[in-house]
Amino acid sequence: MEAITTTFRQAIDALLLKESAFRDMRESPNPFVRGLTFIVSVALIVALVSIVGAVLFRLTAPDFRAIQDAIWQGMMRMPWVETIPEPERNQAIQGIRQTFDLGWQIARMFIPSITNALINVILSPIALVVGWLLYGFLAFVSARALGGKGRLDQTYGATALAAAPRMLGVVHVLPNVQTAGLGIWALICNYLAIKNTHELSPWRAFWATVIPFILLFLFAFGLAILGITIASFAVGGGS
């Protein structure tokens, strides 16, 4: 329990961009375990708070179906409807309605829902841990290639503190309240984590911080190209 409390204190210092937090994590016993515990704890806390936020949103939100119907009825009373030739009007309106409904279906995907919030209790910790493991390993390799001195477990422990800005996600308990800029905040935390863990110069720490993102982007881009190529061959072969 004391270790968890200490880790959260370090996370608050990391949130304030205090470099001592990352150095303390580097020198702490079992930095990997502490980092993993912190990552999972933050993800679970934010996910559970989001459930409360989704419930409050559901209780206070207007009826979106009624809003959709009201907007559609208003559109149908606009003068432009009469400009469509009579023989083509029904078909044109059907096409417009399909596009209109599709737009609302997409919009509903971004509306907080209790179901999605419950699913995130499981998916959010998994996604955050996987991302942390991938980034931490690539950051370690990049930092060591640039002359870094830190160990892999120290790198994981320090970069786990980069999840500290996610703690601000607890504000999602309030309906319609959003957070912005957390990605940049986390990136700065990663920079400080790598710089202090591996005792790198500012420029070397910068490159060790961004190279993992470049590699992950190239990997995802390569997978996308491969998928498109396979799909093209499959369609071509089928025809």
**Share in β-strands:** under 5%
Biggest sheet descriptor: none
Q: Helix tally?
A: 9
How does the overall form come out from the CA principal axes? elongated
Order of helices and strands: HHHHHHHHH
Distance between the termini: 63 Å
Q: Write down the oligomeric state.
A: single chain
Label the structural class: mainly alpha
Keyword list:
single chain, 239 residues, mainly alpha, 2 domains, 77% helix, 0% strand, elongated
Overview of this protein structure:
The structure is a single chain. With 239 residues, this protein is mainly alpha-helical. The chain has two domains: 2-58 and 112-238, no CATH class; 63-108, no CATH class. It is 77% helix and 0% strand. It is built from nine helices and no strands. Helix 3 (31-60) runs antiparallel to helix 6. It is elongated, with a radius of gyration of 24 Å. The termini are far apart. The model has no long low-confidence stretch (mean pLDDT 84).
